[in-house]
Amino acid sequence: MYQQTTAYDRRDGLIEDHLHFVEFVVHRMRPQIPGFVSLDELKSAAMQGLMEAAGRFDPDKGVLFKTFAETRIRGAVLDEIRKMDWFSRSMREKHSRVHSEIKRLEQKLGRDPCEEEIAQSLEMSLEQYQGLLSEIGHLGIVSLHEVMDAVSGGASFMDQLRDARGVSPEDELDKKELVREIADAIECLSEKERLVVSLFYYEEFTQKEIASVLVLSEGRISQLHSQALLKLKAYMREN
Q1: Same domain, yes or no, for 13 and 66?
Q2: Could you tell me which of 146, 228, 145, 156 has the C-alpha nearest to residue 193?
Q3: How confident is the model at residue 132, as a pLDDT?
Q4: Which domain holds residue 56?
Q5: CA–CA separation, 25 and 200 (whole Å)
Q6: Boundary (domain end) residue, out of 83, 116, 151
Q7: Rounded to two decimals, what is the model's pTM?
Q8: Residues 140, 225 share a domain
Q9: Which ranges constitute the DSSP H helices of the chain?
Q10: Is the dihedral of CA 46, 66, 23, 217 positive or negative?
């Protein structure tokens, strides 16, 4: 009975100490989620994720609770959004079309294609292509949390981006190789794409803050973010 009570006290303590973290994660995810999903719905799902994280957290694993909780919170929010049938079939088809075209161009050119080349290959003007990136940009947040493959041990692309500068708890050789591959993939992006990825995922800037730093509109940051994720996804699947 004492051990059970201690476990509950620890769980409640973790939840209470990290309530502010729910707001932080929701705030970061909000710009990538369509407006029809209410803030209350996001916070409710995020809270469920925090509670689940507190219940499952094992300090002996050598992972910070904040890191463990963020994955659970984001996953809970995405699960809730998927239940709402967030994306139409046509939206997914557009996303798949751009991804396939980027992958084809990378193979053909032997390098990272620029926006103009992608737009031309899709038989679009640059403005039309950038508009399409804005339209499908919300899919990026789901793509980042998809499990990559068996080698990653069930880890998502987001897990690898976040842990790229840290020490893997499992200290697995395969995981280190995967991190190296992702680092190589990021180096293939354009300078602005690398900056957006770095500021968003490493420095934890919001898109509004990144727009201010790069002196660009939030819409343009969203486009660069979407295109960077499509290129990284194509690179990783190819390699």
Answers
A1: yes
A2: 228
A3: 85
A4: 2-83
A5: 12
A6: 83
A7: 0.47
A8: yes
A9: 2-17, 19-29, 39-56, 65-83, 89-109, 115-121, 126-136, 139-145, 157-163, 173-187, 191-197, 207-214, 218-238
A10: negative
Average pLDDT over residues 3-29: 76
| Residue 140 pLDDT class (50, 70, 90 cuts) | low
User: Has residue 120 got a pLDDT over 90?
Assistant: yes
Q: What is the CATH number of the domain that holds 124?
A: 1.10.10.10
**Contact criterion met (CB below 8 Å) for 221 and 207:** yes
Question: Which three-class secondary structure state does DSSP give residue 147?
Answer: strand
Hey, which residues does 156 pair with through a beta bridge? 147
Closest CA to 26 of 87, 83, 81, 73: 73
Least confident of 56-65, 172-181, 220-229: 172-181
- Name the DSSP letter for residue 32: G
What does the angle CA 152 – CA 154 – CA 157 come to, to the nearest 5 degrees? 65
What is the average per-residue pLDDT within 184-210? 85
